Amino acid sequence: MAQHLSYEESVSGVWKGLGLLAAVTVAEVILSLLKAAEFVTDLRPVIYVASLFIIGLSIYKAYFIIYEFMHMGYEVKGLAMSVLLPTFLLLWALIAFFNEGDAWRQKREKIEYKNELTVPEGNTVGQIDAHDAQSYRLPG
Q1: Residue pLDDT, tens place only, 20-56
Q2: Could you tell me the residue ranges of all domains in the chain?
Q3: Are 61 and 21 in contact (CB under 8 A)?
Q4: Residue 133 and residue 121: Cα distance in Å, rounded?
Q5: How many Å apart are CA 68 and CA 79, to the nearest integer?
Q6: Are 13 and 5 in contact (CB under 8 A)?
Q7: Given this model, what pLDDT does residue 108 score?
Q8: In angstroms, rounded to a whole number, what is the distance separating the alpha carbons of residues 15 and 67?
């Protein structure tokens, strides 16, 4: 059986959890402001690292909220997996859709480029002028 906490221990756990979530949120805000700062515009690696940290902290906050406040950490493993597996499938679908959308965008740009090409007009289309005709003759 699971061990039940007293009221005081539960309240203390909630305040610790809220404090942790507040600290993570403050860290995310600081990193976001660092990304938006003018002196960082020339430092692309700093922006990428800050973005990765923000994503990581957001995933941690989501995990903590689900684990503690939705009591998923105290459930049987089958129920936890029935929530986690569709979440991973949703994440996979988002990545696949963004990748597919990028491929469509690239093909669309190629089609638009080809549509902008102009075809020469007039009677000279497909004809060879006299100078080029000399170079096409076979010896003999």
Answers
A1: 999 999 999 988 888 777 777 777 787 888 888 998 9
A2: 1-74, 77-114
A3: yes
A4: 21
A5: 15
A6: yes
A7: 86
A8: 15
Dihedral sign, Cα of residue 45, residue 50, residue 53, residue 55: negative
Instruction: Please state the pTM of the whole predicted model.
Output: 0.57
- HEC string of the chain equals CCCCCCHHHHHHHHHHHHHHHHHHHHHHHHHHHHHHCHHHCCCHHHHHHHHHHHHHHHHHHHHHHHHHHCCHHHCCHHHHHHHHHHHHHHHHHHHHHHHHHHHHHHHHHHHHHHHHCCCCCCCCCCCCCHHHHHHCCCCC
Euclidean distance between CA atoms 11 and 5, whole angstroms: 10
Q: Which residues contact 25 (CB under 8 A, 6 or more apart)?
A: 61
Amino acid at 89: L
* CA–CA distance, 140 with 138 (Å, rounded to integer): 6
d(C-alpha 96, C-alpha 89), whole Å: 10
pLDDT for the residue 133? 54
More confident residue, 121 or 74: 74
